[in-house]
Design goal:
This protein has 723 residues and is α/β, with parallel strands linked by helices. The chain has 3 domains: 5-279, Beta-Lactamase (2-Layer Sandwich), CATH 3.30.450.20; 293-449, Alpha-Beta Plaits (2-Layer Sandwich), CATH 3.30.70; 484-496 and 521-718, EAL domain (TIM Barrel, Alpha-Beta Barrel), CATH 3.20.20. The strands form 5 sheets. An 8-stranded mixed β-barrel has the order 18-19-21-22-23-24-25-26, surrounded by 4 helices. Helix 19 packs parallel to helix 21 (596-609). The radius of gyration is 53 Å and the shape is elongated. Bound molecules: ligand C2E and magnesium ion (MG) (2 copies). The site of one magnesium ion has 4 residues, from strand 23.
Length: 723
């Protein structure tokens, strides 16, 4: 840190003084060269000898030289000429050149030597001591000169650095305040003036307490000085007061500038105003954590809060719930009315639902039309169900958007801590799974997540895939259960029942896979497959036996309400050649009640084709018998649940009696399902039931097992006609 404040630091590198002097001897006499080398060599001195002026110049191109000892009389360039060439180079302008001469020295010659830059003359034969002394003196002078030059260069660079530092100081966007060792302000920069509102003149001579905001106590400042003294610096967030009285936060660095003895001579404070940044930070926070459309917390914020709440719930041993709420049919609204209307609707939803949650709850928008509710401090899981239910019912109240009124429906998936997960990630994932299930099991529902539920969901997805495969690849087959006439004990019909033998899971009950097919949109294909195969089978039986056999096929709600179902039936009858009277369609009682007018029409169309229609599972759908008059049906099938407690349950027996009597009065035939015992058979015979279906006679069997039964006469008790 203190380095940034060392205003005298160099801007470039200045090399130190060389450790070794280099003396270049130039003499054409080899003996002389050896003598000179021997005389002049010293521990920190290198002596290099060459034989000509040209060689000397060559050598000097590459090497550093401290002094040249130059013979005047040389072959080629003589000593003066060589000296001239040396001096001609800028870097050698101050290089000591000493001439060696044996010739008689005239004044003119000496003058010529000095004029080309000689420092001195030495005569041959040499005075060894004099030579040594002169070389040493000139080398010493040369060193001093060099040292001086280096020092000057250093100073020049330091001044440059200072000048740059001053520019930085003045123009730094950070406020700078320099005090003396007693803490009196001696210098401030422009940014200081701008941030604090005090001019340089007002600040100089004052103490930094000029800026105290009053937000920090004595202990704070004490701690600050303590740190500064111990470590030489302090940094942190501090609240100061501007000249106009406004308090603002700043990030402050204080550095103690110490002298060579390590004693603080100055303090430099550098600070940046935070207040603008706070707003920026706030804006960044806003965009990172809030949904711009509704202003609600977004997924990230919800996740962060959930993590916080989880820690709290864990500490206080409380429950916590996360509910994901998905608007049904929002996509359709968005597509038909356009995105601006969709956006406005989402805003209205956010406004309404947010007003319904408690202060401590978080209501967030995850994405699209999915909202989320985080409920901490729960007493039990019922709380969240009630709250979610309340929000869903709030959505059903009309919402007015752009002059239109909307009644929305939604589904919700809920995960609860700690039962459904202990981490935010798990609870998110599981609320999502529960939501999927809620959507799947029908609009406007609430689903809780449980481990079992999650597994079921996964299995369900896999099962859908497998079922799809099975339908495509003839992986299904049909079983047929005989229906026996109570009048003569003959087999008069069979009910076709779909069977699925799963390659891994074995046999899967139709109740289960029919539901899967319905949810996965596969029921149409499955139903058609059953219809085609059952009719084909009916034709085969017809071809091989003289007595006609009726084949009953179960119809799903989806098929019945499809609109074109009668066309499908007509096509299959035509393609297989089965007489319409040999086909019976079983429709459950609950299906009749769904869209009555449409159903009446569909049944009439089917009736017109000549097929038989029966009401399956009769008694479970709360329809009244008289209501049945409106439908073009032939038969009712009393549900197994009424039969199974015969003869113990007198209520059930009374109901069966009443149903049969009323059905007959409406000219409807009656079949009893699930007959397992002789006692039940007895009772049904006496109650004048027309037909029987149940394990007592036969379970559902393979098609080829039906043929022998056709010839058989089942033993049925004689009817005792009362009265
Ligand atoms: P469902 O139409 O009421 O069929 C009668 C069910 O009762 C059959 O069960 C049959 O095996 C069973 N059952 C027959 N006699 C007895 C008995 O004496 N005791 C007992 N406990 N049960 C008996 P399954 O085959 O499991 O079929 C269940 C349901 O699955 C059927 O009820 C029907 O609603 C549906 N289903 C079966 N096949 C199809 C189909 O091809 N299409 C449609 N849409 N639904 C089908
Ligand atoms: Mg049935
Ligand atoms: Mg049934």
């Amino acid at each position: 840190m203190s380095n940034t404040l060392t205003l005298t630091s160099s801007t470039s590198y200045t090399p130190p003084l060389p450790a070794q002097d280099v003396v270049l001897v130039v003499d054409d006499d080899p003996d002389m060269r050896i003598i000179l080398e021997t005389i002049l060599v010293e521990p920190n001195r290198r002596v290099v000898a060459v034989d000509s002026g040209e060689s000397a110049l060559d050598w000097m191109i590459q090497n550093r030289v401290s002094l040249v000892l130059l013979d005047v009389q040389l072959p080629g360039l003589n000593g003066y000429e060589t000296a001239q060439h040396i001096r001609a180079q800028e870097r050698f302008s101050d290089l000591p050149i000493l001439f060696l001469t044996a010739t008689y020295r005239t004044e003119a010659l000496v003058a010529q030597g000095f004029s080309v830059g000689a420092f001195d003359y030495l005569s041959k034969p040499l005075d060894t001591q004099l030579l040594r002394n002169k070389v040493s003196i000139f080398l010493c002078l040369q060193r001093q000169r060099l040292a001086l030059e280096l020092e000057l260069e250093r100073r020049r660079q330091a001044e440059e650095a200072l000048r740059l530092s001053a520019i930085v100081f003045e123009h730094s966007p950070e406020g700078v305040m320099i005090t003396d060792k007693k803490g009196t302000i001696i210098s401030v920069n422009r940014a200081f003036e701008k941030v604090t509102g005090y001019t340089e003149a007002e600040a100089i001579g004052q103490k930094p307490s000029l800026l105290h905001s009053g937000r920090h106590d004595q202990a704070f400042y004490h701690q600050l000085w303590q740190t500064l003294e111990n470590t030489g610096q302090w940094h942190g967030e501090i609240w100061n007061r501007r000249k106009d009285g406004e308090i603002y936060p700043e990030w402050l660095n204080i550095v103690a500038v110490r002298n060579e003895q390590g004693i603080a001579s100055n303090y430099v404070g550098i600070f940046s105003d935070f207040s603008g940044r706070d707003q920026l930070r706030e804006r960044l926070h806003q965009s990172a954590y809030f949904d711009p459309l509704t202003g609600l917390p977004n997924r990230q914020m919800l996740f962060d809060r959930l993590q916080l709440m989880l820690a709290q719930a864990q500490r206080d041993s409380e429950q916590l719930a996360l509910a994901f709420i998905d608007l049904d049919n929002f996509k359709r609204i968005n597509d038909t009315l356009g995105h601006p209307a969709g956006d406005a609707l989402l805003q209205a939803v956010a406004l309404r639902l947010r007003s319904q949650v408690r202060e401590i709850d978080t209501f967030a928008r995850l994405d699209g039309d999915v909202f989320a509710l985080l409920l901490p401090a729960l007493n039990d899981g019922e709380d969240v169900a009630r709250m979610t239910q309340h929000l869903l019912s709030e959505l059903k109240r009309p919402l007015s958007v752009k002059g239109r009124s909307f009644h929305l429906q939604a589904s919700a998936g809920i995960s609860v801590y700690p039962n459904d997960g202990e981490t935010a990630t798990d609870l998110f994932k599981h609320a999502d799974t529960a939501l999927h299930l809620a959507k799947e099991t029908g609009a406007n529902g609430i689903q809780f997540y449980t481990q079992a539920m999650s597994v079921r969901f996964q299995e369900r997805l896999e099962l859908e895939d497998d079922l799809h495969q099975a339908i495509e690849t003839e992986g299904l087959n049909l079983a047929y259960q005989p229906q026996v006439s109570l009048t003569d004990g003959r087999l008069i019909g069979v009910e076709a029942l779909a069977r699925w033998h799963h390659p891994q899971h074995g046999s899967i009950p139709p109740d289960r896979f029919i539901a899967v097919a319905e949810d996965a949109g596969l029921i149409g294909a499955l139903g058609e497959w059953v219809l085609e195969n059952a009719c084909q089978q009916g034709v085969d039986w017809l071809a091989n036996h003289d007595r006609p056999l009726r084949v009953a096929v179960n119809v799903s709600a989806h098929q019945l309400h499809d609109g074109g179902f009668h066309h499908t039936v007509a096509r299959v009858l035509k393609e297989t050649g089965l007489p319409a009277s040999c086909l019976e369609l079983e429709i459950t009682e609950s299906m009749l009640m769904e869209t009555v007018d449409e159903t009446i029409l569909t049944l009439e169309r089917l009736h017109a084709l000549g097929v038989q229609l029966s009401i399956d599972d009769f008694g479970t759908g709360y329809s009244s018998l008289s209501y049945l008059k409106r439908f073009a049906i032939h038969k009712i099938k009393i549900d197994r649940s009424f039969v199974c407690d015969v003869p113990e349950d007198s209520n059930d027996m009374a109901i069966i009696n009443a149903v049969i009597a009323m059905a007959h009065s409406l000219n409807l035939q009656v079949v009893a399902e699930g007959v397992e015992t002789e006692a039940q058979l007895d009772f049904l015979q006496q109650a004048l039931c027309d037909e029987i279906q149940g394990y007592l006679f036969s379970p559902p069997v393979r098609a080829d097992e039906i043929a022998p039964l056709l010839e058989q006469e089942f033993v049925v008790p004689k009817r005792i006609i009362k009265g």
